[in-house]
């Protein structure tokens, strides 16, 4: 399997971010070809030392890195990526990797 992890930093308006994310961005992301699973954090995202600057974590799972990259290169993937500027006012970091058992 392969994962795309998106760390959304704290936005200027948390309520507006949350509303837009659920109503608009999530439906866009679900259209990405090859997407097997889509998880998001619930509640506060903390660090071992306490508070963090991360508002939300999204984990998108694909069969492998090739499927993940093909999904991101698709029209739906480009639409989802292009949508970040519409709501992620605190910025976002994206990470991709193969996943498996430790």
Detailed description of the structure:
The protein has 102 residues and is of the alpha+beta class. It has one domain (2-98): Alpha-Beta Plaits, CATH 3.30.70. It contains 3 helices and 6 strands; from the N terminus they run βαββββααβ. The strands form 2 sheets. A 4-stranded antiparallel sheet has the order 2-5-1-6. α2 packs across α3 (75-83). The chain is globular. It starts with a strand and ends with a strand.
In short:
This protein has 102 residues and is an alpha+beta fold. The chain has helices at residues 14-29, 65-73, 75-83; strands at residues 2-9, 37-40, 46-47, 50-51, 54-62, 92-98. The chain is built from three helices and six strands.
Labels describing this entry:
102 residues, alpha+beta, Alpha-Beta Plaits, 4-stranded antiparallel sheet, two-stranded antiparallel sheet, 3 helices, globular
